[in-house]
Prior knowledge:
The structure holds two protein chains of two kinds.
Chain A: H1 15-19, E1 35-41, E2 47-53, H2 55-58, E3 63-68, H3 69-74, E4 106-107, E5 113-119, H4 122-131, E6 133-138, H5 145-148, E7 164-171, H6 173-181, E8 185-193, E9 205-211, E10 216-221, H7 226-235, E11 245-248, H8 264-276, E12 280-283, H9 286-292, E13 299-307, E14 313-325, E15 352-361, H10 375-393, H11 397-404, E16 411-412, E17 418-419, H12 424-434, H13 440-449, E18 453-462, H14 470-475, E19 484-490, E20 496-500, H15 509-521, E21 528-531, H16 548-576, E22 583-586, E23 589-592, E24 598-600, H17 601-610, E25 623-628, E26 637-646, E27 653-663, H18 670-689, E28 721-724, H19 742-759, H20 770-781
Parallel strand pairs in A: 1-12, 10-11, 14-15, 20-21, 27-28
Antiparallel strand pairs in A: 1-5, 2-4, 2-6, 3-5, 7-15, 8-13, 9-10, 9-12, 13-14, 16-17, 18-26, 19-20, 19-25, 22-23, 23-24, 26-27
Chain B: E1 2-8, E2 11-17, H1 23-30, E3 49-52, E4 55-58, H2 64-67, E5 71-73, H3 86-93, H4 103-116, H5 123-129, H6 141-164
Parallel strand pairs in B: 1-5
Antiparallel strand pairs in B: 1-2, 3-4, 3-5
Helix pairs in contact in B: 3-6, 4-6
Amino acid sequence: MGIEGVGARVARKEDKRFITGAGRYVDDMVVPGMKHAAFVRSPHAHAQIKKIDVKKAQGMPGVIGVLTGKELKADGIGNLICGWMIHSKDGSPMKMGAWSPLAFDRVRYVGDAVVIVVAETKGQARDAAEAVEITYKELKAVVDASKAMDKGAPQIHPEADNNLIFDWDIGNADDTAAAFGKAAHVVKMDIINNRLVPNAMEPRAALGHYDKAEDHYTCWTTSQNPHVARLVMSAFYNVAPENKLRVIAPDVGGGFGSKIYIYPEEIVCLWASKKTGVPVKWVADRTESFLTDAHGRDHHTHAEMAFDKDHRILGLKVETQANLGAYMSLFSSATPTYLYATLLSGQYNIPAIHANVKAIYTNTAPVDAYRGAGRPEATFVMERMMETAARQFGVSPAELRRKNFVTAFPHQTPVIMCYDAGDYAASLDAAMQASDYAGFAKRKAAAANKGLLRGIGMSCYIEACGIAPSAAVGSLGAGVGLWESAEVRVNAVGTIEVLTGSHSHGQGHETTFAQLVNERFGVPLDSVSIVHGDTDKVQMGMGTYGSRSGAVGMSAIVKALDKVEAKAKKIAAHLLEADEGDIIIENGALKVAGTDKNVPWFQMALAAYTAHNLPGGMEPGLKETAFYDPSNFTFPAGCYICEVEVDPETGVTEIVQFVAADDFGNIINPMIVEGQVHGGLAQGIGQALLEGAYYDNSGQLLTASYMDYTMPRAGDLPSFKVSTSNTPCPGNPLGIKGCGEAGAIGSPPAVINAITDAIGSNDLAMPASPSTVWAAIRATKH
Amino acid sequence: MSDVSLMVNGKRVSGAAEDRTLLVHFLRENLGLTGTHVGCDTSQCGACVVHVDGKAVKSCTMLAVQASGSTVLTIEGLANGADLHPVQAAFKEHHGLQCGFCTPGMIMTATDMISRHPEGLDEATVRAELDGNICRCTGYHNIVKAILAASTTMKGSKGKAKQAA
């Protein structure tokens, strides 16, 4: 490892612009003639649109255009789609209801976009939006998935009887029933995974610009995957053919999944730009973000786990209701199925598993993948079950887990996944040691002397990252391939540009990806530029989500670097009159091994472009492209231990220690990996203690601002003790597993296990707010 | 419309703004200083923190006309030319930022916090005083570390300056 190479704790290249206020986010973009948009949104959760009167709004100061869904439909703009087909157990396809980017006949959730107003200023657009008169006939709404299939519940889409989108099975029901037949113990639980709002700090935004002379569109958008946005807007929404549509995702202020999807606003801004003849910018305010960003989680689950007399797991039965909201968002169907139920084996040997998932429409914001996406829900089920089982059996939670760990690899689970590598006991041991698990009793006694209830809880999570390979996900219903692309351009002076289909919105790609190049060619980081987020620059890519940029994105770069290296060595061998096989790259030069003959990197690059003296038949230039399609998912895993003190008088929980021991495979930049874990832990702890999206029965979102939705703040969290003990991933050239989601996946059960341990009651819902914890403590006393 | 006249980052600036224009929008839209961000509409997130007459202020809580006549420092004016301010340098060194959106507000809050605590800071104080700034990426761990480090650096450099005098 060099000082800037693989494994080095290099400070980030991208930081300079962010710390000096020079970042360029969509809202910072200004194009000549640009005007501003405001959307008129449904105030009702479920209603028929009887009449839309835009006359008054059209006459307001500064108004350029007031456009409706009927006009959008007349222009042939298509409905939004879900890109992953799921078939129910009876073989029928999922029931996708129509989602027009602007509603024209019916609205299905509070926030559904109905009209766009374009005006000279943002203020004028908002004033005019308030003057649009829409007559609604209100309909009965349902917000709770467990009630949406009841008789008499309102029918949300004509396509989905009883609001059931699909009724899907995985695993083997007969084997599982047989396992339960042999069981000495059965543990049963009802588990709710609370609805969350992702809350990237930068609100979503879009700037659509139609160039009449070129008949060409440009869309600046807050996207995690601009190429997918272009593909979908072109192929399904009929905005423009791909060659006439450029999508740019510049600096993006966090995503966490919520910026994967293509939303109505970017489509409508592009269309409105053509209709009005001006570039149109829209920026969500925070309440619009709460109302319309895809939410996360919202599962209701009943789970049963069968054990033999020695506490070995025999089988697992899971039934889950997943609330998908009012419309099927882009990847919404994959989250509660292939990203959830396939992880229900956890870190454990479970011979038989059967899971059933029902996806259900409600009159709430669409629900889709949010940091972890299905895997936090699976981990919460598994790790609450394991903890509960240990308490029921009166055995150590650590030893019950250890007894059931998968220890031989590869390990085929009964739910599709084949784990390739791991050492779950190593993470457990590391976490127990770092947390001084053995000394807990002493600390508990000391807390009791202060009148506080101290508890400890653990969670041993596994996740699947870098979802792949394309052929396999295609056979499971994915509408896209899940590979990644890279292009490495060596310039004539030896500096390097890497063009990647991954997109950085906080992950630090401009640094870690450059470290790969430094490691390979010895070129200083300052001479390596990472180019991403622009469909005119990067040919194609699948973007960043599911912790895929390391395992898939960087693997594509490695493939392209391999090709560059091969050609560079050929050129050097020719210049040095040596055998190609004897050329090594060291300290920024190509050398003949075992001699002092060498050609500096930049001279080799120059030779590639002057082309005065290249090997016979070789094309000039030095630029290579690669597409990488992984052979399998990767399987990061780890153990988290949380220790809390609860004040029984107030129900206030303080996290006094949080330990994370992760296995991410090989690591490029430990500083960035630790940062990813910290952030994930904060979101997971937020879910466990603070966050919850609540609708009232009429479908009004009660938590639509930071006054009502509790975001974790600095004072709510401790400093974290994080470490890694890594087993390289055998499936990709770098041995990387991915680290972006682990913290959010593994932490909620550790927190809830700790609080329930402290208060002596296992019945505790998330978020474990002071009032919830206080009520749980009272309930144990009556 | 009202006339607004300010000293921003050492330069006198003026312009006309609608009476309802917030200081943050005046900075971003009239002056093109887009380093100050808008992350919410309830004055909760702190992405818009700037210094007005030497104090950290959420620039979404103030009308541009209210600020008229004041001296404003934004993130763009914090560094001394090419030399980063110690708080900026500490955020980079300690990986106190990821997506960068909350960062300008965090840094402006932190510089104010450090100057109000010349005696130095501890972790509990930093966490309590960050109450008005939300970050979704970092879990605050490295932000706290960066602020503590910057506080130590700035204390040290002040001490040295005193000794030299």
